[in-house]
Amino acid sequence: MARNYYVDAGYFFDHEDMSTRNRVAVLGRTTAENLFVEAEDALAQQIRIGNNFFTVIGLLERKGSGLDGNDQDDIVLVPLDTAMTRLQNTREISHIFVSVIGREFMDAAIQETNLILREARGIPDRIASDFSIANQVDMIEMVASTSRTLSTLLAAIAGVSLFVGGIGIMNIMMVSVTERTREIGIRMAVGGRRRDILFQFLSEAVILSLMGGILGISMAFLACRFLSMAGVPTSINPLIVLVSALFAALVGMVFGYYPAMRAARLYPIDALRYE
């Protein structure tokens, strides 16, 4: 089929069902679960569409969400002639889906479809078409472009947030170094080396930044939990969580290096005299 709907339980309606306008239906998994809880229980059962009862003869494979975010499994398929005569009471078709073997044949398929429809509708050459053809490739490219724009925007916001957070960590560590100047002098006086002081304050900056990262990750877990409860599907990748935590530690290391180096370069005598 043009939209790649395939049955994985039961069977699909055939030409006889089309020609005799049989009242049979094939359900998507979401629809079947909403109506019967267990999707497989829908087979051979009857559902009502309008004033007509249809027998469920098949269940479709799961497809998930489409480009527009809608659930492609929340669907009911019936024979075309049955839908036109028993449900819609019309002989008009509003949409026709056409599949192409490969992307490279898309333009040729559009031109051929346009010619076939114009000939079938009796439209002269100089008259504009009274129908439109939507190209799935253009839709995919538009969605991809929008996704890239949003990703760039989110990356810029994240970059600014990390920079501001890093400046905050630097200021906190600078204040810490200033308030603990005598402590630094005492540590140096009893044998503390510059690299020990550097490592101490650098470790504090990394721990401070890492705690903020863990808090942010925890809030993200809660947000995903609430979204899942609201029916919005979410996914948590452990690798991304690990990278986020490591990146938070890296921010603390980068922005905490200057305060740590300033603390390590203090002279013991001047540090001990500091009030």
Topology diagram in text:
Layout: E1 7-10, H1 15-19, E2 24-27, H2 29-36, E3 46-49, E4 52-60, E5 76-77, H3 80-87, H4 106-121, H5 136-179, H6 181-189, H7 194-229, H8 238-264, H9 268-273
Parallel strand pairs: 2-4
Antiparallel strand pairs: 1-4, 2-5, 3-4
Task: Describe, in plain words, how this protein is organized in 3D.
The chain is an alpha+beta fold and 275 residues long. It has 3 domains: 7-97, no CATH class; 99-133, no CATH class; 138-273, no CATH class. The chain has helices at 15-19, 29-36, 80-87, 106-121, 136-179, 181-189, 194-229, 238-264, 268-273; strands at 7-10, 24-27, 46-49, 52-60, 76-77. Helix 7 (194-229) runs antiparallel to helix 8 (238-264). The mean pLDDT is 82.
What's the short version?
By secondary structure, the protein is of the alpha+beta class.
Name the beta content range: 5-15%
How many domains comprise the coordinates? 3
The residue ranges in which pLDDT falls below 50 over 5 or more consecutive positions are none
Radius of gyration of CA atoms, rounded to a whole number: 33 Å
Oligomer status: single chain
Terminal CA distance: 82 Å
Bulk shape: elongated
Secondary-structure element pattern, one letter each: EHEHEEEHHHHHHH
Number of helices: 9
Query: Major β-sheet, in short?
Result: 5 strands, mixed
**What structural category arises from helix and sheet content?**
alpha+beta
Beta strand count = 5
Report the mean per-residue pLDDT as an integer: 82
**Percent range for helical residues?**
55-70%
